[in-house]
C-alpha cells in the first residue's frame, strides 16, 4: 500500500515517547540534584493492584534515599544510560523514520534544588546537544517540562507544589528552557498526567502524605494542582512571548470509563468518573474550573488559596493542543464489591468481560481509543496528540538474538486502526508517540522486564547487562508503518 491510501494527514507526527527519569540515568553526574524519582524503589513483588504500596512513600523512606548511593534499589538512577547513549538511540529512531520523539527535561539537571538563581551550564549543554542531534536527523522534539521529576529539595521544603513560591521557581526553569532550547523545540507539554495527583501525589506533586494530617491531605493536593494550573497558564504565556510560533499542550491520562450496563445508576456513576478525569484538561483548555468541582469543595469544606488574578490568568492563557496517554479502559458498577477487579496505569475498576488483558493485567481496548478521541474532539475543538500508548510485556530473546514480539505488533496495529477510524470521523490528530519506544525502567515497579520498546536494551531487573541495544521484530514493522504514513499495517 502507498502513502496515498492512508487516512492519516500529511505531516502526521509518528514517533515514540520516553521520560528522562526512566531512561537518562547519570543521576549524580555533572551536578544533577536529587529528584522525587530518585527515591523510587524497586518493587517487583508488590501486588499490581496495591497502588498504595506501589506508589506511596514515607518520610523514613525519603530520608533513606537521600543517604543512599545505591542504584539497584533505586533503578531510575541508572535508567538505560540514555544520558551517554542518546546519539546511538537517536540513530535507531531515525532508522525507524521517527518524525518526533517525546522527551522530558529533568529540572534538577538545570537547577539541582530548584531554587538556584542560575542554571548549571552542564545541563544546558546536554539538552542543547540532544535537541540539536534530533533536528539533525529531522526528528521534531516534543518536550515535557515536568514529568515526575520534581526537585527533592522542593518536595521536602515547600510541601511539594503546595507553596506559591514553587510557581516562580518553575517559571525560572521554564524561562531557561525556552531561551536555551526554543530554537530547536516547537512543541512543549507542561505537566505529565497532571490528573494523577491523587493516584500518586509523591511523583506528581512531591507530596509525602504521612507528613500531613489525614483530614488536610485532600485540600493540600487540590492546592498543589491549582498551583500547577496557574504555572501551566503562565508558562504558556511565556512560551508564546519568547518563542513565536511554538505551541504548548497539556497532558492528561485518558482513563475512559464505561458503565457496567444500562442501569441508570451505573450510567451516572461512569459519567461522574469521566467528568472527574476531564476536570484537569477542562481547566487548562477551557480556562476555568468546572462547577461540579467548586460545588464539591463547598460541600467538603475544602479551601484552595487563589492568588490575585488567578482566574484571569487561567482564562487568558489556555493550552494550544491537548495531549494524553491511553492504555486501557475501565468499568464502573454500583455492585463493584461483588465484581472481579482489574487494574492498570494506577487505576482500578470492574473487569470488562469483552476485553483481553496484558501480562500486567491491563485491559486492552483499541475501540476505546476511537471513542476517547471523538469524545475529546467534541469537548475541546482543539488538536489532539496521543503521546503515550503501549503494551508492557515480557520479551524473550531467541538464540540468534532476535525478538519475535508479534503481540506488540498486534496491539499497535489495532490501536493505529482505531486512530484512523477517529480521523475518518473528523478528529484532528497531530501525532502518535508510543510509550517506551525503547525499553526503559518502568514507572511503578521500576522493573526492566516490563518492556514496551521497539528497541531491546540488554539490562535485567537487577541492573545486570551490557546496555546494548538491538532491534525487535516490531522495530521493522513500525518502520514500515511510518514509511507508508499508516497505510500498511500488515
UniProtKB/TrEMBL annotation:
One of its GO terms (biological process) is carbohydrate catabolic process. Keywords: Glycosidase, Hydrolase. GO terms for molecular function: beta-glucosidase activity. GO terms for cellular component: cytosol. The keyword Hydrolase applies. The active site is at 388 (nucleophile). Pfam families: Glyco_hydro_1 (PF00232). Belongs to the glycosyl hydrolase 1 family. PANTHER family: 6-PHOSPHO-BETA-GLUCOSIDASE ASCB-RELATED, GLYCOSYL HYDROLASE. This is Glycoside hydrolase family 1 protein. It comes from Collinsella intestinalis. The lineage of its organism: Bacteria, Bacillati, Actinomycetota, Coriobacteriia, Coriobacteriales.
Amino acid at each position: 500500500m502507498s502513502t496515498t491510501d492512508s487516512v492519516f494527514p500529511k505531516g502526521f507526527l509518528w514517533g515514540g515517547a520516553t521520560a528522562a527519569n526512566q531512561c537518562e540515568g547519570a543521576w549524580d553526574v555533572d551536578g544533577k540534584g536529587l529528584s522525587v524519582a530518585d527515591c523510587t524503589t524497586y518493587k517487583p513483588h508488590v501486588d499490581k493492584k496495591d497502588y498504595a504500596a506501589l506508589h506511596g512513600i514515607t518520610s523514613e523512606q525519603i530520608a533513606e534515599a537521600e543517604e543512599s548511593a545505591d542504584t539497584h534499589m533505586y533503578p531510575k538512577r541508572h535508567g538505560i544510560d540514555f544520558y551517554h547513549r542518546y546519539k546511538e538511540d537517536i540513530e535507531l529512531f531515525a532508522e525507524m523514520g521517527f518524525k518526533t520523539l517525546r522527551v522530558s527535561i529533568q529540572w534538577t539537571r538545570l537547577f539541582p534544588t530548584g531554587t538556584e538563581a542560575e542554571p548549571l551550564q552542564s545541563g544546558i549543554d546536554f539538552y542543547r546537544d540532544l535537541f540539536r542531534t534530533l533536528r539533525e536527523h529531522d526528528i521534531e522534539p516534543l518536550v515535557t517540562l515536568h514529568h515526575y521529576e520534581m526537585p527533592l529539595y522542593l518536595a521536602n521544603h515547600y510541601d511539594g507544589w503546595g507553596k506559591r513560591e514553587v510557581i516562580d521557581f518553575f517559571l525560572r526553569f521554564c524561562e531557561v528552557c525556552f531561551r536555551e532550547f526554543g530554537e530547536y523545540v516547537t512543541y512543549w507539554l507542561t505537566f505529565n498526567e497532571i490528573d494523577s495527583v491523587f493516584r500518586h501525589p509523591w511523583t506528581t506533586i512531591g507530596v509525602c502524605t504521612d507528613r500531613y494530617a489525614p483530614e488536610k491531605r485532600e485540600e493540600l493536593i487540590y492546592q498543589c494542582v491549582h498551583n500547577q494550573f496557574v504555572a501551566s497558564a503562565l508558562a504558556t504565556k511565556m512560551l508564546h512571548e519568547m518563542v513565536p510560533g511554538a505551541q504548548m499542550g497539556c497532558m492528561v491520562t485518558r482513563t475512559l470509563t464505561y458503565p457496567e450496563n444500562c442501569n441508570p445508576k451505573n450510567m451516572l456513576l461512569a459519567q461522574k468518573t469521566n467528568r472527574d478525569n476531564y476536570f484537569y484538561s477542562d481547566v487548562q483548555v477551557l480556562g476555568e474550573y468546572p462547577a461540579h468541582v467548586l460545588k464539591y469543595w463547598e460541600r467538603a469544606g475544602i479551601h484552595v488559596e487563589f492568588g490575585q488574578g488567578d482566574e484571569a490568568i487561567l482564562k487568558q492563557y489556555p493550552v494550544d493542543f491537548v495531549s494524553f496517554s491511553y492504555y486501557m479502559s475501565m468499568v464502573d458498577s454500583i455492585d463493584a464489591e461483588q465484581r472481579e477487579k482489574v487494574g492498570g496505569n494506577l487505576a482500578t475498576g470492574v473487569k470488562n468481560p469483552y476485553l483481553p488483558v496484558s501480562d500486567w493485567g491491563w485491559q486492552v481496548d483499541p475501540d476505546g481509543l476511537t471513542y476517547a478521541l471523538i469524545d475529546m474532539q467534541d469537548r475541546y475543538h482543539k488538536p489532539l496528540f496521543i503521546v503515550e500508548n503501549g503494551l508492557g510485556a515480557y520479551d524473550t530473546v531467541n538464540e540468534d538474538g532476535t525478538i519475535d514480539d508479534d503481540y506488540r505488533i498486534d496491539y499497535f496495529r489495532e490501536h493505529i486502526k482505531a486512530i484512523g477510524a477517529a480521523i475518518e470521523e473528523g478528529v484532528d490528530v497531530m501525532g502518535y508517540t508510543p510509550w517506551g519506544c525503547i525499553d526503559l525502567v518502568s514507572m511503578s515497579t521500576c522493573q526492566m522486564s516490563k518492556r514496551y520498546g521497539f528497541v531491546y536494551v540488554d539490562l535485567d531487573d537487577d541492573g545486570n547487562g551490557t546496555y546494548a541495544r538491538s532491534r525487535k521484530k516490531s522495530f521493522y514493522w513500525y518502520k514500515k508503518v511510518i514509511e507508508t504514513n499508516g497505510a500498511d499495517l500488515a
